[in-house]
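User: Can you predict the 3D structure for this chain?
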Amino acid sequence: MRIDILSVVPALLESVFDHSIIARARKKGLVEIYLHDLHDFGIGKYKQVDDYMYGGGAGMVLRPEPLHQWIEKLKNERHYDEIIFMTPDAEVLNQNTVNELSLKKNIIIIAGHYKGIDERIRQLHVTREISIGDYVLSGGELPAAVLTDAVVRLIPGVLNDETSALSDSFQNGLLSPPVYTRPAEFKGIKVPDILLSGNHAAIEKWREEQSIQRTKKIRPDLLKK
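Assistant: Here is the predicted structure, written as structure tokens:
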């Protein structure tokens, strides 16, 4: 898989992708991640990428030209399955969307900034718009990192145990059950006896029951779905 991210401040993402699971996936050649600076196609002497809103109002808007030129450059080099704009006014990211995107080959992610991007880029190029929640951040770089991380970890070979991702929260529509490790007792709290029993069928039943109880308590909306 190849992921290209367009950003005003790509340096914000360098550390995120140079460590941990994503870094190992890149070294293995399982994913290619490229960060592109919109200032490379900025306007005029100062490489301007933003301007005031037509109609007045507070805040700046990313101009269409730098985004258009980057997208056209990349599209001339290869086919992209999705061009995704990270924005609060969009569908909220969920595990089903992540599962779907993990099967794609090439993706462009636009990290918005300021008040957003010129609407014409959304009309001309964007195939999907995604939000990571009902709140606003300073820019789309962190949402782009969230989406990338969620997608990359599902690529075969990225996790040491590929079945681990299948037991994550939301994969089966429920929250994950409690998990424990050594020691068997900590601060007077013991690991449930069932997990030490060796009875795998009983353990799986316990985990399913715990998932349902936890979901009912914390996210009852998931059970309604």
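The domain at 2-152 is CATH 3.40.1280.10 (Alpha/beta knot). The chain has a mean pLDDT of 94.
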